[in-house]
Amino acid sequence: MKILIVRLGALGDIVHALPVAAALRARHPEAQIDWLVDRRHGVLLEFVRAVTRRLVVDSRRWSDAFVAVRALRRERYDVAVDLQGLVKSAAFARTSGATRVIGFARAHLRERLAAGFYSETCDPGDVRHVIDKNLSVLALFDIAERRRRFPLEIPESGACEPVVERVRRGGLRGYALINPGAAWPNKQWPPARFGKVASALAVRHALLPVVLWGPGEEAIAAGVVEASNGTAMAAPLTGIGDVLALARAARIVVSGDTGPLHLAAAVGAPVVALFGPTDPARNGPWEAADISLSRYADCVCHYQRRCRRSRACIDEISVEDVRAAIDRRLVAAEPHA
C-alpha cells in the first residue's frame, strides 16, 4: 500500500499529526508512507520513524508546487489524506492522483471549499484536541486504535554538552528549558517575567534555566537571561534535533503556544504552558499532569496573530501564577515510592 499524508505546517501542527502516521505504520508495517510538508518545517520529519519519505515543497511558489505534483503523480498512491483542511493542502491531495482522497467533513475544515477535493470524509464529532481530530481519519482505514503515539527518533546533540557541564559544575539537580519566543506577538509573554521565573527555578528548585531561541529571537533570549539575576544561560544555537534532545532530558519546560512546546510534550517532558489567543483544550499539552495557564476565555482575538486590545491577554498571567504551576508540575513529576 502507498499512503500520502498532507500536512504542510506549521511545526506544532505537524507534531499533532504524528500519531496518525504511527497508527498507519502499526497497521501497515510494509506500507510506503510518504508525507508532503512545507520546506520550512520539513526537517522534523527526518526524526519520524513511521515515515518512509518526506516530500518537501515551497507551497508559496507555483513553480515548486507544479514540480511537487508531478512527483506525487508518479508514485500512484492508493490513499492521500489531508490533515490540514485548506484548499491548498486538499488540492495537493487530489492532484496526487491517489485512488482515495480523504479529508475532514466540511464543518471541521479551516477552509470549507477544501471539501470539494475529497472523495471521502470523516466527521471527528465533538472531540476537543486537534490530535484526536486527526486520529478520527483512522476510521476510514478501519483502524480502531486512537493512541497518542509520537514515533520520534531523538538524536545525539552537541547542544546538550555545555548545559550538562554547567549543571555538573554548579552541583544542580538538572535543568529547565524556557522558551520565550513565539511567531505571533500575542502569544509572547514578556521576557522580563520569564527572567523572574528563571530565577525562581534556580533558587527554589536548584535547576539551571536554559533559554531557547530561534532565528531573530536573540534579543528576547538575552532579555530573559538579563532579568534572571545571573541564573539563566542562553542555549547554544539549536535545530529541531537539538530541541528534541534537550527537552527529553529537561526536568521541566516552560513555554508559550509554539513549536518547541509541542516538541517537548511529544517527547514526554513535564510542561507548564502559557496560552493567550489559542485554546489549550484544542492545542495544548495533552498529558493530564501537564499544566496550561490560559487567558483564552477572556481573549477577544481568538486565533488572530495580533491583539485588538492595548494589552495582550497573555499578559494577565502573573509571574506568581507560573511559579506556582512550576511547583505543582515538578511535584507531580517526582517518582513516588
Number of strands: 12
* N- and C-termini, Cα separation: 47 Å
Low-confidence stretches: none
Measured as a percent range, the helix fraction is 25-40%
Major sheet description: 6 strands, parallel
Mean pLDDT: 96
Morphology: globular
The SSE order reads EHEEHEHEEHHEHEHEHEHEHEH
The radius of gyration computed from the alpha-carbon positions, rounded to a whole number of angstroms, is: 21 Å
Question: Biggest sheet: strands side by side, in what order?
Answer: 3-2-1-4-5-6
What amount of the residues lies in strands?
Answer: 15-25%
The secondary structure category is alpha/beta
Number of helices: 11
How would you characterize the overall build of this protein?
Helix 6 crosses helix 11 (319-333) and helix 8 (240-249) crosses helix 9. The protein has helices at 11-27, 62-75, 87-95, 130-135, 160-170, 191-205, 218-226, 240-249, 259-266, 280-283, 319-333; strands spanning 2-6, 32-38, 53-57, 79-82, 100-104, 120-122, 174-179, 207-211, 233-234, 252-256, 271-275, 291-294. The chain is an alpha/beta fold and 337 residues long. The mean pLDDT is 96. The chain is built from eleven helices and twelve strands. Helix 3 (87-95) links the parallel strand 4 (79-82) and strand 5 (100-104).
